[in-house]
TrEMBL record:
Species this protein is from: Trabulsiella guamensis ATCC 49490
Record protein name field: Shikimate kinase 2
Residues noted as binding Mg(2+) in the record, renumbered to the chain: T16, D32
SUPFAM superfamilies, A to Z: P-loop containing nucleoside triphosphate hydrolases
Gene3D superfamilies, A to Z: P-loop containing nucleotide triphosphate hydrolases (3.40.50.300)
Amino acid sequence: MTQPIFLIGARGCGKTTVGEALTRACGFIFIDTDQALQAKAQKSIAEIVEEEGWSAFRARETATLQSVTQPATVIATGGGIILSPVNRDFMRNNGIVIYLNAPVSVLAERLEAFPEEAQRPTLTGKPISEEVHEVLAQRDALYRQTAHHVVDASGAPEAVVREILTALQVARAS
Ligand SMILES: Nc1ncnc2c1ncn2[C@@H]1O[C@H](COP(=O)(O)OP(=O)(O)O)[C@@H](O)[C@H]1O
Ligand SMILES: O=C(O)C1=C[C@@H](OP(=O)(O)O)[C@@H](O)[C@H](O)C1
Ligand SMILES: [Mg+2]
């Protein structure tokens, strides 16, 4: 199986962290759409949003998603990638999509410890835990409708990788 694997989910669910670990476990190449986008733009996400607005960031995100997708690749996406129906269809039709699902309390705890504001400018202007709650309520259904598999992402990265590998093996066997 060399189909690309897309990791989706809220800010802080571990797409980047788990994606790197998953890549080591399955011998694929790792790509993070936010990292690729920032390298190409030579600007941080906070700078892009400040100078060009969120819609310009979203357009760059769609172009990046399409340009990085290739076989044998784990693609960690940004939390808002599922807002675009074009991105949702693209991922579902071009690979296996895994939703890393974690409760608001876990997401907020991780983001409060490592806010990485250059990559995560505020979406609502509200404090982190309020924002995480509000944004997840808006997006959870979109993550679920886009995903082929939903995985519990509240454990340690190695445990999440094991769950993903199990889901992929079960899918291949059936
Ligand atoms: N499974 C995990 N267990 C504990 N901490 C994690 C886990 N996954 C991610 N983290 C931590 O949470 C923060 C956000 O993780 P990251 O991989 O950047 O999430 P995402 O890319 O989904 O926004 C990082 O500081 C990371 O070290
Ligand atoms: O949830 C979002 O809308 C965003 C999530 C971020 O990625 P992470 O989910 O990797 O933090 C990044 O793409 C950008 O700040 C927008
Ligand atoms: Mg990330």
